Amino acid sequence: MRVFVTGASGWIGSASVDELIAGGHEVVGLARSDGSAAALEAKGATVLRGDLDDLDALRRGARESEGVVHLANKHDWANPAESNRAERVAVETLAGELVGSDRPLLVASGVAMLAEGRPGTEDDPSRNVGPDSPRGGSENRAFDFVDQGVRAVAVRFAPTTHGDGDHGFVSLITAAARTHGVSAYVDDGVTTWSAVHRSDAARLVRLALEGAPAGSRVHAVAEESIPSRAIAEAIGAALDVPVTSVARDDAIEHFGFIGGFFGMDLSASSALTRERFDWRPTGPTLLEDIAAGAYTRDRAGV
Fold first, then answer.
1. C-beta of residue 148 within 8 angstroms of C-beta of residue 100
2. Class in CATH terms, 2-159+196-221
3. Where in the numbering of this chain does the NAD-dependent epimerase/dehydratase domain appear (predicted)?
4. What is the architecture, at CATH level 2, of domain 160-195+224-291?
């Protein structure tokens, strides 16, 4: 299958490109820089230059593909409204080009706020509806195109897709521990996050592209509920610094914007995904990655 991938040089995207190529697919990756283009070409992918605001490039990539994997996002935490706008427009543009084709469109999503008092499941619809909602309501917007002949699928990633070299949420929490000399959790540390190793997430992307029915929600979740205190303790042990609690009202001052997420319950189940797609995560756990130095190793000169 000829697959157009946005975010192809990103953390999840680059692993997904490797997985797709290894699975026999031809990959066309969107690249906005010379460095990204060179990295994709080195993997054996074809490059399409452009970014999320280049709608002509998005249309061309979708039009000339047999399937689309949309992983790019601006992630502008200083201006989330712009990230949400760009995400919604990108999904509408990609889906619009696939109308009537029955070709797959995988859209990256998350597991936040799916349910209260229990882990979210694949049967829980996203509460993000409309352009002003997180990610511009892109998951539900993609599903609007199912009746127009688009095999839209939401791939919901755990809040941490971890691994050696990750610069995401856990790296920011680790950076705060370095800065303050203590590894902190919020309040009593009982809120939990789900997690998945990058390699397992990439494999699920391929499986969903190849076989997920239109309107499916798949959960890239290997571990359902890891207490935030356990994450802080693992970081503290890796850095050899004390572990302490930070009051919720002080979390953003201590951690930066990630403090607003670290105190949230972001747990989710992947039981239905495993059953439906025979997906069996095999990568290290989050705490194993932290203990192995994935977030504390000095990479100077590497």
1. yes
2. alpha beta
3. 3-211
4. Alpha-Beta Complex (3.90)
